[in-house]
Hints:
The complex is a heterodimer.
Chain A: H1 13-24, H2 28-44, H3 49-58, H4 62-73, H5 78-89, H6 91-103, H7 108-116, H8 120-132, H9 138-149, H10 153-166, H11 179-188, H12 195-210, H13 218-242
Helix pairs in contact in A: 1-9, 2-3, 2-4, 2-10, 3-10, 4-5, 5-13, 6-8, 8-9, 12-13
Chain B: H1 5-30, H2 37-43, H3 46-60, H4 71-87, H5 90-107
Amino acid sequence: MSSPEAAPFAETPAQSYWRGLRHGTPFLVILVPFAMLFGVVAVEAGLSITQTMGFSVLVIAGAAQLTAIQLLQDHAPVYIVLAASLAVNLRMAMYSAALVPYLGDARTPLRMVIAYFNVDQTYALSQAEYENRPAMPMANRIAYFLGVATPICPPWYIFTWLGAAFGTRIPPEFALDFIVPIAFLGIIAPALRTLAHVAAAVTSILVALAFAWLPSGLGVLVAGVVAMIVGARVELWLEARMQ
Amino acid sequence: MNVSNAELWTIIVLLGIGTFLIRYSFLGIIGDRKLPPWILRHLRYTPVAVLPGLVAPLVIWPQATGGQTDPARLAAAAATLIVGYITKSLLWAVFAGAAVLYGLLYLLG
């Protein structure tokens, strides 16, 4: 019997790619309506189709893209739009750090491609896969990651375009104004995993409402910073109580 | 929206570059170094710290009603949060919220 490390990996990179693709495909159910929603909302807000596509291709991050559009509609200054949207994306620094042990030795152009496609779903599935199969060779890891990205990232562009191209025909009875808050709430609710997350969210709401008189968007930034600190504090407090 | 085309493209490109740099940070630049625990502790809460503050004024003072608090929109927001929290699913949450919103807008005229 050979140790699992010494055994040759029983899968070709092509097979790893297809497995990644199969694992990523169910996410289309969420991604298709969400991408179309972004396309509709961006065009309704006054962006051209090219600008809408610019967001989805250059940024590929739904929550941050919607944040930017919402703040633009509130007439927030450019620096606040950028600061708040980038703050929403800061969590991806954690994803980047978590992938280093598995993909840190890949060639630089590949690491750049992986970074570009490093979104919530590609990160979550790949990280779990690498943990379950520590013997996976680098070529298979990369192939798996790109397999997951295939049904996630290109459809993000395509359905953004469909939403942008056909969305303006949606009649006003559909109260599209409120679909954006509902989409945000749909992102927030499943993320309320611990008491610390709930505390951060409640703080964010209270501070944002209290500072709603500030120039557009500034209240959100203040709320974000305070809520982040409250989340971290509550986490420390919970940990201390556990011991 | 009162921004010029040039400003819009500036936002799109800078947001793209900034997001890429966040995603490339450790994979490409910092490498295999542990994040200090206090930074990790704050990063974990960035989405739930920013998004609720963004959405709260939209729920309580909706633009479509000129800032008047609206029962249909409040109920839709509550339904989205409750269903999303229980099912842990973005999709079910949005379906529930949209169903309550359209149902009540129809019933309340």
